[in-house]
Amino acid sequence: MKSKTKKKHSDSDSVHSDDGSPSFRKVPRKNGWTCPWHPLQFIEWIFITYFCIIYFGCIVPTFPYEWQPAGYIIPAIVMFVHFLVQIISISIDPADPSTHKHGKDRMVPRFDRTQHPHVIENSHCYLCEVDVSSTSKHCSVCNKCVLKFDHHCKWLNNCVGARNYKFFLSTIVSGLVAAVIVLIATVYVSIVYWVEPSLLHPDCVAESGSANEVMPSVSSSVNSTTADPNITDIVTDSPPYCSDDAWCRDNLNMFTNVPGLAFFIVMILTAVLAVIAVGLLAHLTLFHCYLNCKGLTTYDYIMKKREEESRRDDDEANFGADIEPPKMRKIKRSQIVPIKKEREEIEMKKTVPDVFQTDESVTVDCHSPRH
User: Fold this and answer.
1) For 169, what's the count of Cα atoms within 13 Å in the CB-facing half-sphere?
2) Residue 70 above 70 pLDDT?
3) Three-state DSSP class for residue 252
4) Residue 201: helix, strand or coil by DSSP?
5) What pTM, to 2 d.p., does this model score?
6) In 10 A of CB 232, how many CB atoms?
7) Of 270, 261, 272, 279, whose CA–CA distance to 49 is shortest?
8) How far, CA to CA in Å, does 222 sit from each of 139, 212, 214, 215, 219?
9) Which of 142, 153, 204, 248 is catalytic?
10) Which pLDDT band, with edges at 50, 70 and 90, does 330 fall under?
11) How high is the pLDDT of residue 327?
């Protein structure tokens, strides 16, 4: 048996065991900014930073000049909304208002299950030592009662309850929209890279567009008047590198000129990460839409599933316990049919004559001489 001698962590609000896992938190967590931070918080911010750098710094500059304003403005608004609602979700304290009666720095006692089977009974929390709402639940991670507790979000490092649920839902929806935009942009760039790499150079697109617009007017003017023939050469000439696919692939910018294959690999990697982000956020968004339609919280849904599984296990364990065994019907001796081997033996006995059986009409003289 390993002895779990408890030692203080760098965070004075919690006590950790030898394996480093938090075992008890003395002071309730205020919000998602309270240390220690969860590793998933860092992963999330790294993902967001990476997507912003690649999209605004590498992808949008490859768009035609006509697309670039929309490519900058619309995703920037979505990203700003995502940052704003996420920061609000992290900063809000979702605790039950009744828990603030004892002050913010109150030490929460350790729960003793020998005295009480549940932390909250009859809307009274034995840890917070206050009467709470009927929808409040005590979060073991934050060590406080949360009003209309939904779940503890590791990505926000904060509980989600009545006070910040709308901001949490806005966070995942705005994140989903931003991830979809990044995914569409990376797929577009990856396809164009192989099909028509000159489209990734806005100058080539602008030159080809201006030439197509000016050519009809130039041709009509040449037919009507004796214009300088060199004009057509000046207008219709486009940069020679635009027709060279190899040059267009090998001269793409990612804050500096990089080989075309490196650019393509970065686009594929970004697309894969965007697919993962879209899958996770879409699943989470649909799940919470389903919960809202059913009027449930995540906690209610999990508890309901546990009750169903427990009931199913009990039914499987008790299957057949209350069912009486089938009654055996008595069979008369005359109804017993002999098996095949016994039937053959009986028939053989019937066919063999009984030599020891004597008949009155037949006499055998044992002393008579033989003829």
Assistant:
1) 16
2) yes
3) strand
4) coil
5) 0.71
6) 16
7) 270
8) 82, 16, 12, 11, 5
9) 153
10) low
11) 61
Tokens of 156: 């926000």
160 in helix, strand or coil? strand
Q: Is 153 considered catalytic here?
A: yes
Number of Cβ within a 10 Å radius of residue 189: 23
Measured distance CA(81)–CA(264) in Å, rounded: 30
For Cα atoms 165, 12, 86, give the angle at the middle one, nearest 5 degrees: 20
User: Vertex 302, ends 301 and 305: CA angle to 5°?
Assistant: 85
User: What average pLDDT does range 322-345 have in this prediction?
Assistant: 58
The answer for 15, left when phi > 0, alpha when psi is -120 to 50, beta otherwise, is beta
Q: Classify 152 as helix, strand or coil.
A: strand
Tens-digit pLDDT profile for residues 208-257: 654 444 334 434 443 444 445 444 444 444 456 677 888 888 888 888 88
Q: For residue 264, with 0-12 CB atoms within 10 Å meaning exposed, 13-18 middle and 19 or more buried, which class applies?
A: middle
Q: Residue 334 has which token pair?
A: 């005359």
State yes or no: pLDDT of 307 exceeds 70: yes
> Would you say the C-alpha torsion 95, 101, 106, 108 has a positive or negative sign?
negative
Burial of residue 305 (CB within 10 Å: 0-12, 13-18, 19+) is exposed
Helix, strand, coil percentages for the chain (3-state, nearest 5): 55, 10, 40
Do residues 34 and 21 make contact, with C-beta atoms less than 8 angstroms apart?
Answer: no
How much is the pLDDT for 343? 58
Indicate the SS3 state at residue 245: helix
Range name among 151-160, 221-230, 277-286, 304-313 with the lowest pLDDT average: 221-230
Q: Burial of 194 by CB count in 10 Å (0-12 exposed, 13-18 middle, 19+ buried)?
A: exposed
